[in-house]
């Protein structure tokens, strides 16, 4: 499409609104071959001239106003969709529909450039609020510190332990920025899983934890459990961190061979689901296996026992939190209503891969 002059674009926008009654900046940008920001500037100019009325996300005919009870426009930005964040989005969609809000979705791969590009794109859409699972590098944290709409974080922590490597100015801003936060209580989930195995009579347990954003909490909790609770229950707890690799199955099988040479556990607590499935195939039901995630698309009653974070609830509660903050219109600042942190405790689903320890196993 040939590049339109500014005056031509603006005339087309006016005619579009005369024909349809409204125009979306994103839709117009796509149709007219311009950036969303360019269309927004056109709309601002036309609004100043009295030829249309600017509203969130676009424009309507001159003299028309967006109703006071018009839909909230909420952006949600999460990592590349897989079984985990598909569930988060499903919950967010349910809550948005229930509240009459418009949910604009975007995702990013785990690269700095793509995360920054997706963030810039979704925040250019004149949102009322933003729901985000942030990428960890400094650029993302700096962007969030400068966001001028209410933000709800989903999962990733917003605390000094995660921002220590940022430049001083961004570190201070991140530490002071009040944000609402809904997250899985992975500490409670890890204890729930280890307690389950101990209650089944297992006294030699080993944790294998893949290097993911969830891993630091699971490793920290397992280590604390091994130093405090496990000895009181006569449990020996081993821990192995599985590094990410192009051949993750090989990393897992090498770790399993080492574990069974050194410890001979009767139960394994494994993060992720894929590693738990691979371990089950490798060991052929020689030990009890409990997975941490329960996010595989199909895990029937005869499948993996698992500790299951409720990711649908994460999405639902995130939308409910931001709608609640925005519903007071003009009184939603954190000075008036302090930020909220909401921890959602995982559930235990016992299936075929964990069972009470038999004496023959113990021997």
Strand content: 15-25%
Please count the beta strands (DSSP E, at least 2 residues each). 15
Q: Which stretches of 5+ consecutive residues score pLDDT under 50?
A: 65-69, 160-164
* DSSP summary: helix tally: 15
Helix share bin? 40-55%
Question: What's the order of the H and E elements?
Answer: HEHHEEEHEHEHEHHEHEHHEHEHEEHEEH
Looking at CATH, the homologous superfamily of the largest domain is Response regulator
What is the level 1 CATH name of the largest domain?
Alpha Beta
Per the principal axes of the C-alpha atoms, what is the gross shape?
A: elongated
So, CATH architecture of the largest domain? Answer: 3-Layer(aba) Sandwich
Report on the structure:
It is built from 15 helices and 15 strands. By secondary structure, it is of the alpha/beta class. It has 3 domains: 6-61, Winged helix-like DNA-binding domain superfamily/Winged helix DNA-binding domain (Arc Repressor Mutant, subunit A, Orthogonal Bundle); 72-178 and 314-345, 3-Layer(aba) Sandwich (Rossmann fold), CATH 3.40.50; 186-309, Rossmann fold (3-Layer(aba) Sandwich). A 6-stranded parallel sheet has the order 5-4-6-7-8-14, with helices on both faces. It has a 6-stranded mixed sheet with strand order 10-9-11-12-13-15, sandwiched between helices. Strands 1-3-2 form a 3-stranded antiparallel sheet. Helix 1 (6-20) crosses helix 3 (36-48) and helix 2 packs across helix 3 (36-48). The longest helix is centred in the first third of the chain and has 17 residues, at 83-99. It is elongated, with a radius of gyration of 25 Å.
